[in-house]
Amino acid sequence: RREPLALVNLKKKNEETGEEEFTSRLGHCKAKATRHIFLIRHSQYNLDGRADKDRTLTPLGREQAELTGHRLAMLGLKFDQIIHSSMTRATETTEIISKHLPGVKKISTDLLREGAPIEPDPPVSHWKPEAVQYYEDGARIEAAFRNFIHRADAKQEEDSYEIFVCHANVIRYIVCRALQFPPEGWLRMSLNNGSITHLVIRPNGRVALRTLGDTGFMPPDKITRT
Q1: Domains in the chain, please, with CATH?
Q2: Could you name the domain of life of the organism this protein comes from (predicted)?
Q3: Mean pLDDT for the stretch of residues 90-114
């Protein structure tokens, strides 16, 4: 996922011709396919739960997940995998969505757990985590970005469609980083529960945001942001 020119030794020459042979080597490093990344925010959950295991989806949250799963299925795309946060609300959302996408493998990861990615600018008065939380969560969420958001592997021949079920803070930070916007602005965006954010990563590394927090497929009375 690096710029291909950065992966080739330009100084190495062909001993027979005396010409740089990096052209053929470059071809082996270039991506050929486009990656489609669908970032799904978990559905509404029980805010009164003290521990993560108690923060299960509400009845409305389960309805939202059904609607999101139906919407994804209606897109008619061949999804490759669903990678989800290991937190309860994301796991439950994934289980409901996956019923609409039979055969798509599910992978759980701690990297996508909710957290405080970076101190927001401008600051907000209603949410002020301790500074240490930014260091702990921020490094992990940045690692998630670097691990999952990149151009296709050079060996990938066909376009891919991947789903990531996680959390609002994680998605907002990833969007800023992917678009090369100042990541401190992540809190200026708002995402509904069960919403779909669609990023496209071209073979040349360019990233486009097709949708941000789309819930147009939900009836107005089913939309929440808790």
Answers
A1: 33-222 (3.40.50.1240)
A2: Eukaryota
A3: 98
